[in-house]
Amino acid sequence: MATAPNLTVGETAKGPALAVGDTTKAPSVSAVHELSTNGPNHTYTPRTRWEKVQEIIWDGGNRTPEERKLIQRLDIHVMSWATFGYFIRLLDSGNIINAYVSGMKEDLHFHGNQYNLLTTFFTCGYLVGQIPSQFLLTRIRPSVYLPTIELLWSILTFCFAAVPNVKTVFALRFLLGMLESPFAVGVITLMGSWYTPRELGKRIAIFYSASYAASMFSGYLQAAIYRGMNGTAGLAGWRWLFIFCGIISIWGPLWGYYAIPDNPYTTKARWMSEAELALHIERMNAIDRRKPVPLTWKKVKAIGKNWHLYAFTFALICHCVVTQPLNYFAVWLKSLNRFTVYQINLFPTAAQATGLVFTLTYGWLADGLNKRWQILVIPAILNFVGMVIVASYPGYGATFFGYMLNATSWGFWPVLYAWAIELMHKDMEERAIVIGVAQTMGQVFIAWVPVVILNVGKYAPRFHLGFSVMSGISVLQFSSIFLIRWFAKREAAKEKAEEDAGTSEEGDL
């Protein structure tokens, strides 16, 4: 790692502050390079064109071998656990769609809007667990809490293979949602404690891309199981799907107990040396990423008065609602009566593959170009175009393309959270609460909105009403980008004015 020789652990580097404002100004890549690569007393060496290209491709550029090695070791432990963990989380919660179209509907006698209720019960459990879990994460070590809930939901996944009726499925979905609720937000909070702005966006994108990989894998797995194991040992293929998912999932928490490092100020990670820890703390000090403090009610009230909570929550609510169409892609395909069960499980993986590529692209561009709101505009526009197409239902080919476009917009989420972490860089507790509340409120809306406007019993297979409403919400998602930017610029100007006033007073003395 590139160190600042004259800094001791716990000392804050002096240099360009991480402005709480438009990310075109801060935190700039050059500012982070100047602090973490050259140190505060060194002359900044301009990057070459090749180093700028390396910066976009990965974390290259003007870095020392020590810093490269330091981040590689962090990636090996944190990113491997986080990405696999999110993979199994989405695999274990999303496989219900593949099971539903592969015989579970007929075997358990689903009817009416009970398909929608699968999501509703999961979301209700998610809501019950989400915010309390964020508070618990400020009290309990993530290295204990997160892998434990992983272990519990992995065990629960096996239980789905034995469900006798629809009511049992609903009960298990509620418990699964409650157990999975801390994971995504907990991981993002963890990443914000270890990675700098030039590293964060692409890693959140990699983390989030596991959701596409999980959905694709679930489709391939169910298709293979339905062909090869349907009826084996007297079990339907969809029951075997849950058994295999449980077997895959159990390894995640076992690795997590060892790999998770908590945060740089409290870590007890056995794989990290004291020297490495000191360098990590210097990196965080250099970008003013402060040490966590105990969460109090006074602090909670202060967070509740800040614009971050409301602006990011609004943006995420819009995003959660307008990315629902892919949950109904397989239902639409089945309604056409032109594809086999194998094909119905296979075709939606094209959308997941599309989402995977675009999500990673957004993350790489956001970090490499050091742009946040500018990149967010791209998926927001693509989402609106896709929503209009599926709402108007111009024909089979165009509608299929509309679903594909909707998949390209899922990468909005990782860049939005990377931006949120940067704007709240000074306060770990605020980051945890804001991200937790935003995620929770997003789930609140997808708990009831699909039941009302995407009722399978009433509106399948075209869902004209629901997709038309979502087209309007897509416009609000686009608007939320500029709402956040306006607040951020206003706050940055206010901080600069206060800083200038303080400098003026010191000069008078």
From TrEMBL:
It comes from the Eukaryota. Its main location: membrane. One of its GO terms (cellular component) is membrane. One of its GO terms (molecular function) is transmembrane transporter activity. Residues 78-489 form the Major facilitator superfamily (MFS) profile domain. It is found in: Membrane. Gene3D superfamilies: MFS general substrate transporter like domains. Keywords: Membrane, Transmembrane, Transmembrane helix, Transport. The chain crosses the membrane at residues 78-97, 117-137, 144-164, 170-192, 204-226, 238-260, 307-326, 346-366, 373-394, 400-420, 432-453, 465-488. InterPro entries: MFS, MFS_dom, MFS_trans_sf. PANTHER family: PERMEASE-RELATED, TRANSPORTER LIZ1_SEO1, PUTATIVE (AFU_ORTHOLOGUE AFUA_3G00980)-RELATED. Belongs to the major facilitator superfamily. Allantoate permease family. This is Allantoate permease. It comes from Cucurbitaria berberidis CBS 394.84. The lineage of its organism: Eukaryota, Fungi, Dikarya, Ascomycota, Pezizomycotina.
